[in-house]
Structure formats: structure tokens, C-alpha cells
Design brief:
Layout (H helix, E strand, L loop, with lengths): L2 H10 L2 H16 L3 H13 L3 H25 L5 H19 L5 H29 L4 H33 L4 H15 L1 H9 L18 H27 L4 H21 L1 H6 L2 H21 L3 H15 L1 H13 L5 H30 L1 H21 L1 H9 L1
Helix pairs in contact: 2-5, 2-6, 2-7, 2-8, 2-9, 3-4, 3-7, 3-10, 4-6, 4-16, 5-6, 5-8, 5-9, 6-7, 6-16, 7-8, 7-11, 7-15, 10-13, 10-16, 10-17, 11-14, 13-14, 13-15, 13-17, 15-16, 16-17
Length: 398
């Protein structure tokens, strides 16, 4: 059978992974990253500075911490599929509620709840994909990448929903945009909820036993720094595009390219996901996002911004995919959900730190300097992942 026929057959059998990936589209693409599109309108309408704007993303990231930490313990009592579905429902409610009031306390609370729901979806979904493809190991890695790449669908969809509303109705229409996102989130959640309810197997069982993290700490630290760095770009890139005087239509196009890059990334990285050491995949994904983050800072032109979003999108969700592959290879199947959740805890702390630091830099030295800050963190993350390569290799050989 030709390689093309094999890919076609594989893609058809990847539909369950795609369905579960719509959970990431909702919890990450719509609930988290859509805020970058709404940030300029909310900042203008509510008279915020960049620190205040960044603090809402930090509230979301703190919710992600609460969700990740709580998931680590909840998975000792309930199945990943149950927590996944609960997280999706919580995210839908939080997104809808964000459009109901404009006071900072309310918005902080809704962003916090959205973060909790997203963490439950993100942490449990990787284990559910592994359970679904437990008997198809040749597909499991690309299925894992496809699950996380579901965020790209949400990113692209958020641009198509939010930007026309703000363009037609003005900055004060940001609550309408959040309500529209909530409706889209509710519709998109039907398939992943049905898919999660069908999954059985050991990887969907209650987690048990202590995790053995020997050899995994460098990768964990690299993942932390990746979270600190990538979230800077995702929080402020749309505001940076607007600061260059480019139109909302161009901003929508750039955002759509970014989401499309995420969506196709598991196929671009298919051979790497199949054959490379997970530490090398993590380092490479950090480096690709680093290139994407630096391009607009050095070359403030429309073509460089499009190339930047394409590069950044193609590498961004390969990092969590590499971590999921690492956990699958290093831990027993009944600990996959717990292991991915622990990495998600580390990731969530990084996401909480990044926007505040970048917001302070943006207020004092401009948005371009904040992009430099995020890129520097991604560079260090890539180096650390390579430093930990030998330890990861030894661990997987045991």
C-alpha cells in the first residue's frame, strides 16, 4: 500500500482524536486565546493599562493552576472521562458568564473558572486519546498531536467570531463577542462529550500509586519555561498588530493563519512524533515558536507577521504533544492521566507568570520588548530540553 493511501486510511481512523480535540478547541482556543482578540477592545472600553489586561490572563492561568492541582488529586477518585466532561461544561458556563457583566471582580472570577475547566480538559484528554488508541500504537502519537492541535480550530474560529463583531459594533460590543463565543463553545462541545463517554480501558481508570519522575525533571523545567514564553506572544500579539496600524481584517487573517498552523501541526510533525525522542521534539517545538516570536519584533511588516503566526502556530502545541508522548513512554498506562496532569501543573504556573512580567515590560518599554522577553524564555526552554535528552533516553530504556 502506498504511503498516501496509508495516510488517508490513518486520517479516517483519527476521527475520535479529532472529536476529543474539539474539547481543546473550546477550552483553549475559545476560552483562553480568544481573550487576546478581545484584549484591545476591553482595554479601551474599560480604561485598563497593560498590567490590568495581563492580570485577567493571569487570573485564567491561576484557575488553570487550581484546575491542574485539583485534577491531580481528583483523578485518584474519579475517571479522566468524567473530569474531562465536567471541565468542558464549566468552561462553557464561564465563557458565557464573561459577557454578562463588566466589573473587574466578575471578569476575574469568570476567567478563573474558565482556567479550571480548561485544565481538567487538557490534563485528562491526553489520557483519553491514549486509551482510545491503546490497541493502535502506530496511530497513538499522531492522534495525541491531533488532540492538542484541536486548539487551532478554536483559535481560527475565535477570530472569525470576535473580529467582525468588534469591527461592526465597536469596542463596547466586547460582551456580545463573549456571548457569541459561549454559544459556539456549547455547540462544539457535543462531539467531545459523546466521544469521552464512550471511552473505557485502563488509561481511563482511576489513577493509583506514586509517580516515578527520575530523569524527567529537565523536561519539566523546560516545559515550565515554554509556558512562560509562549503565553506572552499569545496574550499580546494581536494588540501588537493593532499597534502597527494594521487593519482588523489583516489581524483576523493573521490569527486564522496561526490557528491553521496549530491545526495542521500534527501532520507536519508526524514523522517526528513517530520517531524522535520526546525531549528532542520538545526542544524543536520551543525553537520553532522562538523563531515565530522573534520575526515581528525584528521585521514589522505584514508578510513577516503572517510568517510569524504560521511558524508559531505550527510549533506551539507540539510541545504538549511531546510531553504526552514522554509520559506515555515513561509511565504505566494507569498513571498516564496523573503524569500528564503533573506536567500540566508545572505548565500552569508558567502561564501565570508570563503575562504579568510581559505586561510590566509592555507598560514600561513597549510591546516589542515584551516579545523579546517571551522569545528569550523560549530559547532557554529549548536548551534545557536538549540538556535533559540523555536522562530522558535512559528513563525510556528502563
Amino acid at each position: 500500500m502506498s504511503s498516501n493511501a496509508t495516510i488517508i486510511r490513518s486520517n479516517l481512523s483519527l476521527l475520535p482524536a479529532f472529536g476529543l480535540g474539539l474539547g481543546v478547541a473550546v477550552s483553549v482556543g475559545l476560552a483562553r486565546f480568544a481573550y487576546a482578540l478581545l484584549l484591545p477592545a476591553m482595554r479601551e472600553s474599560l480604561n485598563w493599562n497593560y498590567v490590568a489586561a495581563g492580570s485577567l490572563n493571569t487570573a485564567n492561568a491561576l484557575g488553570y493552576i487550581v484546575g491542574a492541582v485539583s485534577a491531580y488529586f481528583l483523578l485518584q477518585k474519579i475517571r479522566p472521562s468524567q473530569l474531562f466532561i465536567t471541565g468542558l461544561l464549566l468552561t462553557i458556563v464561564a465563557v458565557l458568564a464573561t459577557g454578562l457583566r463588566s466589573d473587574l471582580l466578575w471578569l476575574t472570577a469568570t476567567r478563573l473558572l474558565a482556567g479550571i475547566g480548561a485544565a481538567w480538559v487538557f490534563a485528562c484528554g491526553g489520557a483519553l486519546v491514549a486509551a482510545r488508541y491503546h490497541a493502535h500504537q502506530t496511530l497513538r502519537r499522531v492522534a495525541t498531536g491531533l488532540f492538542f492541535a484541536g486548539a487551532g480550530i478554536g483559535i481560527a474560529a475565535s477570530g472569525l467570531v470576535v473580529n467582525p463583531i468588534i469591527a461592526m459594533l465597536g469596542n463596547p460590543a466586547w460582551p456580545t463577542a463573549w456571548l457569541a463565543l459561549g454559544v459556539v463553545a456549547a455547540i462544539a462541545s457535543v462531539w467531545p462529550i459523546l466521544e469521552a463517554s464512550r471511552i473505557a480501558g485502563e488509561a481511563n481508570a482511576v489513577s493509583s500509586g506514586a509517580l516515578n519522575l527520575r530523569g524527567l525533571m529537565p523536561s519539566m523545567l523546560a516545559y515550565f519555561l515554554f509556558a512562560c514564553g509562549y503565553i506572552v506572544y499569545m496574550t499580546f500579539i494581536f494588540a501588537w498588530i493593532q499597534a502597527q496600524g494594521l487593519s482588523w481584517k489583516f489581524g483576523t487573517a493573521a490569527w486564522f493563519v496561526l490557528g491553521s498552523g496549530v491545526a495542521v501541526s500534527p501532520f507536519i510533525w508526524r514523522r517526528a512524533l513517530d520517531m524522535w525522542n520526546p525531549a528532542v521534539i520538545l526542544a524543536a517545538s520551543c525553537f520553532v515558536t522562538l523563531l515565530g516570536a522573534l520575526l515581528p519584533a525584528f521585521f514589522a511588516s505584514a508578510p513577516s507577521i503572517i510568517l510569524s503566526t504560521a511558524l508559531f502556530g505550527s510549533g506551539m502545541f507540539i510541545a504538549p504533544s511531546s510531553v504526552a508522548v514522554l509520559v506515555h513512554r515513561a509511565l504505566e498506562s494507569n498513571q498516564w492521566a496523573k503524569g500528564i496532569t503533573l506536567f500540566t501543573v508545572v505548565f500552569s504556573f508558567g502561564q501565570a507568570i508570563g503575562p504579568i512580567g510581559a505586561g510590566w515590560i509592555a507598560d514600561s518599554a513597549g510591546l516589542t520588548r515584551s516579545l523579546y522577553f517571551g522569545a528569550a524564555l523560549l530559547a532557554v526552554a529549548s536548551g534545557l530540553a536538549l540538556i535533559g535528552l540523555r536522562r530522558v533516553s535512559e528513563r525510556m530504556q528502563d
